[in-house]
Specification:
The complex is a heterodimer of chains A (about 375) and B (about 350). With about 375 residues, chain A is an alpha/beta fold. Helix content of chain A is about 40%, strand content about 20%. Chain A has helices at about 10-25, 35-45, 65, 70-80, 105-110, 120-130, 145-155, 170-180, 195-200, 205-210, 225-240, 260-265, 295-300, 300-305, 325-330, 350-355, 360-365, and strands at about 30-35, 55-60, 85-90, 110-115, 135-140, 165-170, 190-195, 215-220, 245, 270-275, 280-290. In chain A, the strands form 2 sheets. Chain A has a 6-stranded mixed sheet with strand order 4-3-5-6-11-10, sandwiched between helices. In chain A, strand 3 (about 85-90), helix 5 (about 105-110) and strand 4 form a beta-alpha-beta unit. In chain A, helix 1 (about 10-25) runs parallel beside helix 11 and helix 2 runs parallel beside helix 17. Chain B is of the alpha+beta class and about 350 residues long. Chain B is about 30% helix and about 25% strand. Chain B contains 8 helices and 14 strands. The chains are: A alpha/beta (about 375), B alpha+beta (about 350).
């Protein structure tokens, strides 16, 4: 009845915390890449229980946060078309584009915007509405890319004429590379996102660990998973090691999912991608490759999918001092921002990490006492 | 990489020009709609909003409440819009300690609704009223064009009698009061989400929909000094505690490990990235009363629901949650939108 699963048992958590306190002898900084991990750390209060000399900095690992504002503008333009049913994940609905509007508001104004949890559901929507054009706004890291690829493959194989995709998938390794090559980089080790590795495995991380001499520990999302990941990363740092290590074996994260990777390769090709807060990162995006590019929403709706860049931005917005770019790179903590709680909140976000359900600023807002 | 880019996004349009679905979710957006639009327009200045109003008459105090119901689907595991409409208003009256006397029922019917469905739902409403010992004494029916309503909307209003000497409300809350919940949280919200078949999950859970006046009357009959009650509908436990603490001008500490959440509710919320503390129940309430009476209240509540529990205490200035790992953090008020996370 308690809803507290066995792997959250306090006794086991305490054992790991004791080990972490005993074995952390020097000051270290770890970055958890994934926004889901950031929220779990703060929701359970792990950041307040770990040794003070172990600093966690929060990475750009929220696909909603990093989706380019211009891409959201395209989604809004597509949703505004009367013949379009726009399907996407729930937490994309709150994120504004370059202007103040978001998909929730578009829906309130009559746009047919639908929340899905599985991309294949979009096929059913398309079949149920043969007279409408169904667009899937596909975002996410490698975790969600295989499901988008499967949708694209089935839609193309089945000759779906009324289904297209606005794809904004991004890859984690280029973002890690970008963070590590920044002159201000303070990251000494990574907790890699277990969900991503459950698809991609560890192969892409090996050269990053070797080249940059940083331990990378594949980590899950429960308190025990997170503490185990931190402990293993600290052990490596204390010993001067820099290996990829799997602390999330129950997800098969060490080897990943070959079928899912094959689907990604079959349907997508890598492209340069603009990240909100990080800028253009070479090879960090995925776009549809032939013949699947026939499903690209930009082809089907050339005007809507490439809107006039002279967007009507909200000139009343005072974003001075917002350091969301630094937060997204792990160069600053949310509560170090001069606007945190002073004109910036989830209700009035000035930067992407405060907008998204998984953004680091939103996590601090939700789970930390504010002075 | 080049110098860090700072690409701020524009201000949220939450104060924008239109009503969003989230404004009806019982969370932060609902509060803002009330405080910034509805109450100022109506000229209401009393900042304390209760489930029902208290009307002073020569014959004693009456409670008066109204409630609109727009649930989809109209029939769901554990109930339907007919029983929900009746229990919803009876429960709002019960939160002031009132016994229901009479109900009104307003129907907005959509063109095309099968008459057999309407009859079934009205019979369900009648059976629910019968169970509560109350009658529907007046009503109204309107029909709108196809596409202008979701089959059927129901609005109930109710009058109830408040026993002499009973004065339940947030202003009676005192520092040191113990906080109880009458059962486990969120079954209704999860059952409805599953019944909509939009989010790709199923559950064997049924809604917790139930009338609450019986358990409240039992608490009063035992002579317990009930300071505040709030049913845990839209916005869930989080919204109820935020509103009560705000109106009482006090904080509270809630122990996460003590809050009863069924495993299936916890799993569904985990899967969808939702918070059980913000999920709606339709047959649960939160209660504040003096510490000396907490165990007796718990024993009584458990006769009705085995999941009833003591979850915390009133005190301090902030509403805090102590996590199962012993760390204290703010107890978040949900925004009101149930938007499943991507991962």
């Amino acid at each position: 009845m308690s809803g507290s699963p066995p792997h959250r048992q306090r006794q086991e958590v305490q054992r790991l915390l004791d080990a972490l306190h005993t074995e952390t002898r020097r000051s270290w900084t770890l970055m958890e890449v994934c926004g889901g991990q950031t929220h779990a750390i703060l929701r359970h209060g792990l950041d307040q229980l770990i040794p003070p000399q172990l600093e966690l900095i929060h990475g750009p690992g929220c696909p909603v946060c990093v989706t380019a504002a211009e891409t959201i503008d395209r989604a809004l333009a597509l949703a505004a078309r009367p013949e379009v049913i726009l399907c996407t994940y729930g937490d994309m609905l709150r994120v504004p584009g370059t202007g103040p509007s978001h998909l929730l508001e578009a829906r309130a104004n009559g746009a047919d915007v639908r929340v899905i949890t599985a991309p294949l559901d979009v096929l059913a929507v398309a079949r149920s509405h043969p007279g409408r054009q169904v667009v899937f706004f596909a975002v996410g890291f490698e975790t969600t890319a295989p499901a988008t690829a499967l949708l694209a493959h089935q839609a193309w194989s089945g000759g779906a004429q009324n289904l297209s995709l606005l794809v904004s998938h991004v890859r984690v390794p280029p973002a890690m590379e970008a963070i590590l090559t920044a002159p201000e980089c303070r990251v000494q080790g990574f907790l890699a996102a277990g969900h991503v590795c459950a698809v991609m495995g560890r192969t892409e991380y090996e050269p990053i660990a070797a080249q940059h001499r940083r331990p990378i520990v594949i980590t899950g999302f429960e308190p025990l998973d997170l503490l185990e990941g931190m402990l293993r990363a600290v052990r490596q740092l204390e010993r001067g090691e820099a290996r990829v290590e799997d602390a999330y074996p129950r997800a098969g994260a060490g080897v990943g999912n070959a079928s899912a990777r094959a689907l990604i390769t079959k349907v997508f090709t890598r492209c340069d991608q603009h990240w909100r807060g990080l800028g253009m990162l070479p090879g960090s995006g995925l776009r549809l490759r032939p013949p699947y590019d026939a499903l690209d929403a930009a082809r089907r709706f050339p005007s809507a999918a490439r809107p006039d860049t002279d967007t009507d931005t909200d000139t009343d917005t005072d974003t001075e001092g917002c350091i969301s770019g630094l937060v997204l790179q792990g160069l600053a903590r949310p509560d170090a921002c001069p606007r945190f709680g002073r004109g910036c909140s989830p209700e009035r976000p000035l930067g992407a990490p405060m907008v998204s359900a998984e953004g680091a600023c939103a996590a601090y807002w939700r789970y930390r006492e504010r002075t | 990489m080049t110098a860090p880019l700072n690409l701020p996004c524009p201000i949220s349009p939450d104060d924008g020009p239109v009503v969003l679905l989230g404004h009806g979710g019982g969370g932060l957006l609902s509060q803002r709609l009330l405080q910034q639009v509805i109450l100022p327009a109506l000229g209401t200045t009393d900042g304390v909003l209760l489930d029902a109003a208290t009307l002073k008459t020569e014959g004693g105090e009456l409670a008066f409440s109204t409630d609109g119901h727009v649930v989809r689907p109209l029939e769901f595991p554990g109930g339907d819009i007919g029983s929900l409409a009746v229990f919803g208003t009876v429960n709002d009256l019960a939160m002031l300690g009132a016994t229901p006397l009479a109900l009104s029922l307003g129907l907005i019917l959509e063109e095309g609704l099968p008459l057999s469905t309407l009859s079934r739902l009205l019979r369900s409403a009648a059976a629910a009223a019968d169970r509560c010992g109350v009658s529907v004494v007046t009503g109204d029916t309107k029909v709108v064009e196809k596409g202008k309503a979701d089959g059927l909307f129901m609005t109930t209003a109710g009058i109830g009698r408040i026993p002499a000497g009973v004065s339940i409300g947030p202003r009676a809350i005192r520092s040191g009061d113990v906080i109880l919940v009458s059962g486990d949280l969120g079954r209704h919200g999860v059952a409805i989400l599953a019944a909509r078949e939009e989010l790709g999950f199923s559950t064997s859970l049924a809604s917790d929909l139930a009338p609450l006046h019986g358990s409240v009357q039992a608490l009063l009959a035992a002579g317990l000094d009930l300071h505040a009650l709030r049913d845990l509908t839209r916005g869930g436990l989080a919204a109820a505690l935020h509103e009560l603490c705000r109106d009482a001008g006090l904080g509270a500490l809630v122990h996460e490990a003590e809050v009863p959440v069924h495993g299936a509710v916890a799993s569904a919320c985990e899967l969808l990235g939702l918070d059980p503390f913000t999920m709606a129940s339709e047959g649960r309430f939160v209660l504040m009363l003096p510490e000396a009476q907490a165990q007796e209240a718990l024993k009584l509540l458990r006769r009705w629901q085995s999941g009833a529990a003591i979850i915390g205490r009133i005190g301090g200035e902030a509403l805090l949650l102590e996590t199962s790992l012993g760390v204290r953090r703010p107890l978040e008020l949900g925004r009101g939108e149930l938007l499943p996370r991507i991962c």
